[in-house]
Amino acid sequence: MENSLTLACIPLFPLVGALLTYGVGKSSKDLAGWVATGASLLSFIFTLLTFQQLRALVGAHSYEVAAAGAHGAHHGGEAQVYRALEAPLFEWFRIGDFGVDFLFRFDSLTAVMCLVVTGIGTLIHLYSIGYMAEDESRPRFFSYLNLFLFSMLLLVLGGNLLVLFVGWEGVGLCSYLLIGFWHKNIAFAGAGRKAFVVNRIGDAAFLIALFLLIQHFGTLDFVALKAAFENTLASEALLTAIALCFFIGATGKSAQIPLFVWLPDAMAGPTPVSALIHAATMVTAGVYLTARMHFLFDLTPYALLIVVCIAVLTAIVAASIALVQNDIKKVLAYSTVSQLGFMFVAAGCGAYWVAVFHLVTHAFFKACLFLGSGSVIHACHHEQDMREMGGLLKVMPWTGLTYGISTLAIAGIFPLSGYFSKHHIVEALSHSGETNPYLGTYEAAFTAVITAAAIMTAFYVTRSFAMTFLGSYRGHAHPHESPVTMVIPLVVLALLALGGGVLNGMVPFQLWLGHTIPVGHVHSSESIGAALLHSWPGFVGVAFGLLFYTVLPQVPKALATTLPWMLGALRGKLYIDELYGAVIVRPLEGMARMLWKGVDQRVVDGCVNGTAAIVDVSGEVVRNTATGQLRHYALLMFAGTVFLIAFYFAM
Amino acid sequence: MNYDYSAYYVLLSLVLFTIGTVGFIVRKNAIVAFMCLELMLNAANIAFVALSRRVGNLDGEIAVFFVMAVAAAEAAVGLAIVIALFRNLETTESSDAMELRL
Predict the structure, then answer these.
(1) I need a surface site. Which of A12, A130, A324, B102 has the fewest CB within 10 A?
(2) Under 8 Å CB-to-CB from A622, ≥6 apart: which residues?
(3) Is A358 among the domain residues?
(4) Which domain holds residue A625?
């Protein structure tokens, strides 16, 4: 451990930026965007500096030793020494023996997350300058965006679970603020509220997990917790309960069944928000948390089975809903839910580094896809229905090209980035039985389902690409290529989506993460032919997608007419919103109404108003004795005196 | 022979006090009410003196002096109120003075 000043500066810039942006926005709305982007860029630069410090700390030679050890031992990750930079800011509070420090810690996992958050964050800030150029309240937008970046950095830099939780809630707040950014639209504001409320359910479980950890382990610091878990005598039931509580928290933030319903609605926010918060960074917080708490999850094979079950189910359900959506952002939203499912599959199999790897590649190509869709929406004057698009490749070559690259990347075609991470996920799943006997039973079924989800993924993104960019234009606007501030991020992200996987070959991602999380044995590289063979789900999906939506448009139409119930169910998002409405929301509303009308208005208000009424009536009665006649008062006094004397003698 | 006549004095005091009380309650005229009040005070004085003599010490007679002093002060304040009442309402009837009642 070594203290680092640059580390403390990383989250500082967006925080200052958030305040400054709002102030600057008062005088110049155009400057606000540049200030926010500058703050984000500075944060990225400082992340790079800190990253360099960490690399120096880890040391080049220990790298090679670790690599050699990793090849030799079955669990190579354990051969590597945990090293991290720290920035202890102050002691937050202390209650008896239990104390919490406000502490940032920067290890290899944090480094990856931080680079993704600030790097993609900066690109999306830049993009937003173009996208939000005509919005009246853009200083507020950039202020929120910086605030989000600050919260997200707290989340990934936090050295203990409580600092992480502050960031966790902070990103939730920013998500709410940004989904409902156009709050004059009631439906948009409602979407923000829905996201907030659904996330609170997960957060309640998260808090319970924290309390259980405090009760049984007396610390929330990751390093201390890891040490405590190594020789723990705690029962498996307790560990499973804690792990599942964390996972419920993760299902809220990372949009897994059953708490995924908020993410599709969150598309109400401006598209850069969807790209940054609801694709690249915030929604991956659950995956990060799982990777961060790997020492807990590794001890609970049963909890891992549940994680994988939920994740596989989410991946296939969301992918199937995405097949029929016509709103370009809805396709990508369900795609995100599905891809997050892929990440949790990897995490649930104990291949945390694969989850983080897919998180990174997904951040590249999904951010690119979202920004591409934003570019299209911007060009088509806020039209989001793909049936009103088509043939845009000719008028928007840059957007089309980058969208196309990202499509192939998410489809998982060699040698684009998506192939590497997705292939590792399938690989991890098919070997999961070796370490987790619970998973071994269902290994084959899970692998089949996840492969189907991968084919669907390739199909629906290709469909969205074909409907948007191929064929002829069906809308009524006059689309045009977006400004340069929007195209630059697209190109950068497309290059990253293109080369993200190759990057893995040059920079040993697995070994790098091995300093923090167990990575298992290092996979040897495969031949190009084998890799092309392994990307068959991508090829199949893309081929059918192109076939159905360019050459043979009658096939999907025929399918729709022969299977109308299926189309209806998928269009209706499997009626999950309706189900929740009937089972949870409406009974709750009914109960609230009952409490309001029955308890609050009758009992509580009745008590208060009743007291007032009693005083009122008794006053009306008693005031008759106050006649204003001196003689009456005298008579009363006399009667009173007589009564007192009589009383005295009677005693 | 030393006859004790104090009972008659107490009886007189009782009669005067009753007249004063009844008068204060029934009469509306503020001046008459005052007179009734004086009657009650002096009835008490008679009882004090009589019983003081019967008991054989001067405690009761000392109390009488206090009562007389208070009665004088009360008459001064009370008559001033009556005059103020007359100036404002042109009446000495206490039943007309009910401005403060809603």
Answers:
(1) B102
(2) none
(3) no
(4) 582-650
